[in-house]
């Protein structure tokens, strides 16, 4: 129990305006009590991460003041923040993959013996602190071989070792399976009972409900509500977060499949240039009008699979056919011409040219077709006409079709990508994390478009997603990938639970070869 | 509110004009220190290029080679490669064309056909020069900057080799080629000036560059490749071929520039050092933000500065090299992306606050 309500952290009247004019935080106030878990809620782009960057000293606020234990303070940089007892666990881990857990933990404060690094002492330190906080971790393991959950534990221990009283966790559960999440929550509650303060950033309300004590909700950079978690229902919280009534349900009709096999992946193997085998004997087929979900912890071969099907990587063994024709030795453009559209997981790297106009971004896959060019001459009129229509149809909010794509929000960039990939008569859409990091409105839009593509146009969708909720609700069938292999196949996605998927994602369970073999149409 | 909007909208232009003004002012301060008669030097520098018809057209004549090299650089930078071969390509093309026009080819080839042929040869020479670093880069990942800086020396010495061993006129006391055939030369347009028909080729080159980059499929591929190579691959653009194409065209433009310059302004080939037009072209392209439509204006500005400096150098006690000070300051300020950023930031903050209140 909390002995006394001591306000350990107060961020008062914080305003942050980015150089591009975007006001990420407007007069935000955030207060946390010692020994509590405080949820910072909000949609993607609501300003949560910006606020935490301000706290951590990576951004200087345009206005506002931070008080730590009642004293005004402004951290110069993250090092300064750590020295004052503020620790942060980022979404992307800051670890050296080649070193051991113990070495990573003591990095920057290494124990020495006769001027040399003392590995045994480092292991001892690791074991001691792990025991103190009741974390299970192998000090001698190489970080690169550890699971995401272990890496995250290590990050938390790193902060604790450096004396963090306030721990900021930025969407820590995004990369974890349901089993790992419950384990993490037990550990976090223990930390709270040891009088640590935790700021828990998330937009997953069921998790927040089960873990946190109090909350602050941000929407469009402003605080919309503050309170105790117990006083609100999940639905109320989500309405506050989004600013309108949201339905958690995705409505879709039963698939109208003619049984035509649009994508067939057979005995696919892929070994990267370092000789590491990343895909082992992957086989599945996808018929028209259906959505096939691919579940798996990130880095288990899903990205390689999507890059191979779109032609960005060459596979070593096996075969892939698109509507009957093999894609072996075909270029990206030839594969696209066969009717493959794709949404990449990395929007800014593969999805758009940020310094080119919205219009150029939309036509980037079709500018050379007879409809938009004669010889090498571009038909600007035709391009303008069609792109204007697409911008309207896909509801891209941009000042003009000539605005640079990079100036728009993540959700709008994703809509530009959708406008390009969904409008080119694709038979197959490879959607890799299509709604990652975008606001609820835009994700709903992308979901409805994916359903429309399959239900109305008879296309198939291969949906790769780390969001199990999205995966179960959108997909007709689901395969699970673990360590480059398919370890499970669920014919009917509506009969699967996330916990069940989690067991296969972690490699705890594996289906028999016959059961997995059903994924491939004979 | 209105000023804030204006600042945000035209920020790039404001920034560049400010850089030019600051460069000018600092150069004037500099003149005060080095000259015994600074007021006269300043006056000569600013008004000198307009003092006579000949001088005025000198500015335009100088802008011609600068246009070719800066358009060449524009292609390189558009595809995202810092390929500096325009410097060496310009010079080698000039040497090869001079050799053909003075020694290798019969002087009897008819007037219009002769220079047209030579300009095509110049383009091919430039294209080959652009191809070398591009191929080394694509095939073996050789750094284009390093390769072109070194290769520029090779091309410079290749040019002087051609001059010394293939076309040197031993009857003159200085190091120069035989006279170029009269039929090979580009016509002078205006009596009393050296303005030649090359100006039309330069204008055509500007239009071509704008049209090619903005209105053709190949130009589109070049822009996408330069903007985001991963994205270009992902939408199915052949990245290697658009890199090659851009650098070949960039080299070709430099080559045409070298040919036009030799055929328009010289009786004999006289270059023994790098001309510097390539590097000035780089500055122009950067200052014009790689916009083909802006390049002519910036090229004229640089030509005006250089001619003004030349006049100062010959008529006052200040050496003409002081113009480098201005150029350096301008480029420094433009290249420093944070220069005047606080002005923009303030305007942006003001704007977004006002917008917030409206909502």
Protein model, in words:
- The complex is a heterodimer of chains A (522) and B (359).
- Chain A is α/β, with parallel strands linked by helices and 522 residues long.
- Chain A has three domains: 7-242, 3-Layer(aba) Sandwich (Rossmann fold); 249-339 and 427-522, 3-Layer(aba) Sandwich (Rossmann fold); 354-424, no CATH class.
- In chain A, the strands form six sheets. In chain A, strands 6-9-10-3-11-12 form a six-stranded mixed beta sheet, sandwiched between helices. A six-stranded mixed beta sheet of chain A has the order 18-21-22-15-23-24, sandwiched between helices. In chain A, strands 2-1-4-5 form a four-stranded antiparallel beta sheet, covered by helices on one side.
- In chain A, a hairpin with a 2-residue loop joins strand 19 (373-374) and strand 20.
- In chain A, helix 14 runs parallel beside helix 15.
- The longest helix of chain A has 16 residues, at 178-193.
- Chain B starts with a helix and ends with a helix.
- Chain B has 15 helices and no strands.
- The longest helix of chain B is centred in the middle third of the chain and has 28 residues, at 113-140.
- Chain B has two domains: 1-35 and 319-359, no CATH class; 59-317, ABC transporter involved in vitamin B12 uptake, BtuC (Orthogonal Bundle).
- Chain B is mostly helical and 359 residues long.
């Amino acid at each position: 129990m909390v002995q006394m309500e001591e306000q350990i952290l107060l961020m008062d009247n914080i305003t942050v305006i980015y150089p591009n004019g975007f006001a990420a935080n407007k007069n935000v106030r955030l207060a946390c009590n010692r020994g509590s878990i405080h949820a910072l809620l909000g949609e993607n782009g609501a300003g949560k991460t910006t606020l935490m960057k301000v706290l951590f000293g990576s951004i200087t606020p345009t206005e506002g003041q931070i008080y730590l234990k009642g004293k005004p303070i402004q951290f110069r940089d993250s090092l300064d923040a750590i020295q004052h007892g503020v620790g942060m666990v980022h979404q992307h881990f800051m670890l050296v993959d080649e070193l051991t857990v113990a070495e990573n933990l003591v990095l920057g404060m290494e124990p020495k013996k006769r001027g040399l690094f003392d590995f045994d002492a480092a292991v001892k330190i690791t074991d001691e602190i792990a025991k103190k906080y009741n974390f299970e971790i192998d000090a001698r393991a190489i970080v690169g071989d550890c699971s995401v959950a272990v890496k995250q534990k290590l990050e938390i221990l790193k902060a604790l070792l450096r004396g963090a009283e306030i721990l900021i966790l930025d969407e820590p559960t995004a990369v974890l399976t349901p089993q790992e999440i419950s384990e993490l929550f037990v550990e976090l509650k223990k930390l709270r009972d040891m009088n640590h303060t935790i700021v828990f950033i998330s937009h997953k309300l069921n998790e927040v409900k089960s873990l946190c004590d109090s909350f602050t909700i941000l929407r469009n950079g402003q605080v919309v509500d503050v309170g105790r978690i117990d006083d609100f229902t999940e639905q109320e919280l989500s309405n506050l977060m989004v600013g309108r009534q949201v339905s958690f349900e995705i409505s879709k009709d039963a698939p109208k499949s003619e049984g035509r096999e649009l994508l067939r992946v057979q005995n696919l193997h892929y070994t990267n240039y370092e000789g590491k085998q990343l895909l082992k004997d992957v086989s599945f087929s996808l018929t028209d009008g259906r959505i096939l979900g691919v579940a798996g912890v990130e880095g288990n071969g899903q990205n390689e699979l999507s890059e191979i099907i779109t032609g960005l990587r060459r596979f070593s063994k096996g075969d892939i056919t698109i509507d009957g024709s093999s894609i072996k030795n075909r270029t990206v453009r030839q594969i696209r011409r066969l009717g493959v559209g794709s949404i990449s997981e990395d929007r800014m790297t593969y999805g758009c040219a940020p310094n080119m106009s919205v219009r150029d971004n939309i036509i980037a896959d079709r500018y050379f077709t007879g409809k938009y060019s004669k010889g090498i001459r571009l038909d600007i009129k035709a391009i303008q006409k069609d792109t204007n229509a697409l911008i309207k149809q896909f509801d891209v909010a941009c000042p003009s079709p000539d605005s640079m794509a990079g100036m728009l929000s993540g959700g709008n960039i994703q809509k530009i990508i959708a406008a390009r990939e969904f409008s080119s008569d694709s038979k197959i859409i490879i959607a890799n994390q299509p709604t990652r990091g975008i606001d609820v409105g835009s994700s709903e839009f992308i979901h409805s478009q994916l359903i429309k593509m399959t239900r109305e146009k008879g296309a198939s969708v291969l949906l790769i997603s780390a969001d199990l909720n999205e995966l179960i609700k959108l997909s007709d069938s689901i395969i699970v990938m673990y360590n480059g292999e398919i370890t499970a196949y669920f014919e009917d996605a509506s009969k699967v639970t996330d916990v069940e998927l989690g067991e296969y994602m972690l490699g705890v369970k594996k289906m028999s070869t016959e059961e997995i073999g059903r994924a491939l149409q004979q | 509110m209105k000023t804030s909007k204006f600042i945000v909208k035209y920020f790039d232009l404001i920034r560049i004009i400010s850089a030019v003004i600051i460069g000018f002012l600092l150069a004037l301060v500099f003149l005060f220190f080095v000259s015994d008669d600074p007021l006269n030097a300043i006056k000569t520098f600013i008004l000198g290029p307009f003092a006579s018809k000949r001088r005025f057209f000198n500015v335009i004549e100088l802008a011609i080679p600068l246009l070719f090299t800066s358009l060449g650089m524009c292609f390189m930078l558009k595809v995202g490669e810092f390929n500096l071969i325009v410097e060496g390509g310009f010079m080698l093309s000039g040497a090869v064309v001079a050799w053909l026009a003075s020694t290798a080819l019969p002087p009897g080839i008819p007037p219009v056909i002769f220079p047209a042929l030579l300009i095509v040869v110049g383009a091919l020479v430039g294209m080959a020069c652009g191809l070398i670093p591009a191929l080394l880069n694509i095939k073996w990942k050789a750094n284009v900057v390093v390769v072109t800086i070194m290769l520029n020396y090779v091309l410079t010495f290749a040019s002087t080799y051609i001059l010394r061993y293939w076309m040197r006129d031993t009857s003159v006391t200085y190091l120069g080629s035989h006279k170029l055939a009269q039929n090979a030369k580009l016509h002078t347009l205006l009596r009393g000036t050296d303005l030649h028909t090359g100006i039309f080729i330069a204008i055509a080159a500007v239009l071509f560059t704008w049209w090619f980059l903005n209105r053709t499929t190949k130009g589109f591929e070049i822009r996408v490749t330069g903007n985001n190579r991963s994205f270009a691959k992902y939408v199915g653009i052949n990245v290697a071929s658009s890199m090659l194409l851009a650098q070949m065209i960039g080299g070709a433009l430099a080559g045409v520039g070298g040919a036009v310059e030799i055929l328009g302004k010289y009786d004999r080939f006289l270059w023994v050092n790098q001309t510097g037009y390539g590097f000035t072209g780089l500055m122009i392209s950067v200052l014009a933000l790689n916009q083909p439509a802006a390049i002519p204006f910036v090229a004229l500005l640089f030509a005006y500065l250089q001619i003004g400096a030349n006049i100062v150098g010959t008529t006052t006690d200040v050496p003409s090299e002081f113009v480098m000070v201005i150029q350096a300051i301008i480029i420094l300020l433009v290249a420093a992306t944070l220069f005047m950023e606080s002005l923009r930031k303030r305007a942006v903050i003001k704007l977004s606050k006002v917008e917030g209140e409206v909502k």
